[in-house]
Amino acid sequence: MKMVISGLDKTNILICKGLRWLTITLMALIMLNVFVGVFWRYVLNSSLPWYEEAGKYMMFWLVFVAAPIVLKNRGQIALDIVPNMLPPRLRNVNYLIIYSVVFGLMCIFVWQGYSLAWIARKQQPSSFELSFFWIYFAIPFGSAIMALISFEFSLTALLGIFRPDDIDLEPGSMIDNSLS
Q: Which positions ≥6 away from 164 have C-beta within 8 Å?
C-alpha cells in the first residue's frame, strides 16, 4: 500500500507542477487582458467587446486549475483544533472520513461537470467564438485532479489508522515545498 501511495504522491506532485505553470500563465493572461481592456477604453476611447467576458472565463478556469494545488499543499482553510487534540489513530479516522467525502464529491463534480459541458457544447459566448464546452470543461478537469489527490490522502489516512506511528496527517505534514 505504501508503494501505491508513493506512486500517487509522485504523480500528483508532477500534475501539480504542471498546474502551477498553467496557473501562472492564466494569471499573466488575466493581467494582460485587464491591461489591454483598460488601455483601449481609457487611452484609445474605444472598447473591446470581448475583454470582460474573456476575463471572467479565464478566472473560472483559474479556480479549477489552482484548487488542486491548494488541496495537495493542504492550504485550504481548516479548523484543526479538534483534530490536533485527537490521538493519531482517531485523527487519521477523521481525515479518512473527510477525504473520502471530498473524493466522492469530486467524482460527482466530474460526472455532472462533464454533463454540463456536453449540454452547453453548442452555445457560444456573445463576444467571441468558442464552444462553452471548453469553458465548462474546467469543472471536470480540476475536479478529476482533486479526486486523485483526495484518493491519495484517503489511502494515507487509512494506512495511518493501522500504523499511526508511521503515518500521521498532521496539518502541514503533507505540504510539499517542491511545488513552491
A: 87, 88, 89, 92
Q: Quick one: DSSP state of residue 178? A: G
Maximal C-alpha separation, the chain? 67
Q: Which cell numbers hold the place of 56?
A: 471572467
- Find out whether 7 and 155 touch, Cβ atoms under 8 Å: no
Residue 152 CB neighbours (<10 A) = 23
Could you tell me if 179 and 20 are in contact, meaning their C-beta atoms sit under 8 angstroms apart?
A: yes
pLDDT at residue number 136 = 95
User: Can you list the residues of the chain whose pLDDT is less than 50?
Assistant: 173-175
User: Any idea of the CA torsion for 24, 30, 31, 36, to the nearest 10 degrees?
Assistant: 140
User: Mind listing the pLDDT tens digit for each residue in 54-96?
Assistant: 999 999 999 999 999 999 988 777 777 887 788 888 888 999 9
pLDDT for 177:
54
Long-range contacts, stretch 54-62, CB < 8 angstroms, 24+ apart: 54/127, 54/128, 55/30, 57/125, 57/135, 58/26, 58/29, 58/30, 58/33, 59/30, 60/135, 60/138, 61/26, 61/135, 61/138, 62/23, 62/26, 62/27, 62/30
- pTM, two decimals, is 0.87
